[in-house]
Design brief:
By secondary structure, the protein is of the alpha+beta class. The protein has 6 helices and 4 strands. Helices cover 28% and strands 11% of the residues. The longest helix has 22 residues. The protein is elongated, with a radius of gyration of 20 Å. 25% of the residues are buried.
Length: 203
């Protein structure tokens, strides 16, 4: 109604070196007569020479284990890496869940047995795959340690570098609301270059 030409693209974060299957719809609007060219962002995990944020060659999709295994036994409470123990019922859920599965896959009878309401937003990570989408109100279990993943581990799964400071009690918001930096960079660089070149041509 106000003159914008629109297009959209669907992207998955794990295609761009992020160890997480996070699908996002990106809308692009232009006031020009023609909509911006529909760029095909290069899926960097196919580039054997490209080293991503974690120092891993992007020969394939990055897995959970590759990103967090080096800190899974080393606690650092000052940088969002505080281990969170589980109560009895959650421990039973951790023991029952297979790697990569959600608590919604368990039977209602099982939840009655552990005296807990049926809750489908608990995921036990699979070490050899990208993680599922990390949501603000969801809970992720470590694949081999009987505990919840830490804020720092969740940040790594979103491709945030370790120098990025996590404010206390904001861990879930960061992981749940963020557009993974590596994904944002890969998607937006072609558009930035398009606008930059167009600006220079007009000079």
């Amino acid at each position: 109604k106000i003159g914008y030409n629109m297009t959209y693209e669907i992207h998955c974060a794990s295609d761009y070196g992020v160890p997480q299957n996070r699908i996002r719809v990106i809308f692009i609007g232009s006031l020009n007569i023609n909509v911006y060219p529909k760029f095909k962002c290069e899926k960097i995990f196919f580039d054997s020479e490209n080293i991503n944020l974690f120092g891993i060659k992007n020969r394939k999709k990055i897995t959970v284990r590759e990103v967090i295994s080096d800190i899974e036994k080393i606690e650092n409470t000052e940088n969002g890496h505080k281990f969170k123990k589980m109560n009895f019922s959650n421990t039973k859920i951790w023991e029952e869940l297979k790697q990569g599965k959600k608590s919604g896959d368990l039977s209602i009878d099982f939840f009655k047995m552990v005296s807990r309401k049926h809750f489908c937003q608990i995921t036990k990570l699979h070490p050899n795959k990208p993680s599922s989408t990390i949501l603000k109100n969801a809970l992720c279990m470590h694949y081999s340690e009987c505990r919840w993943i830490t804020g720092r581990e969740a940040a790594r799964l979103c491709s945030f570098p370790d120098w990025f400071w996590i404010f206390k009690n904001k861990e879930n918001e960061l992981a749940g609301n963020a557009i993974p930096p590596l994904m944002a960079k890969a998607i937006m660089e072609p558009y930035v270059m398009y606008l930059w070149n167009k600006k220079n041509k007009q000079k």
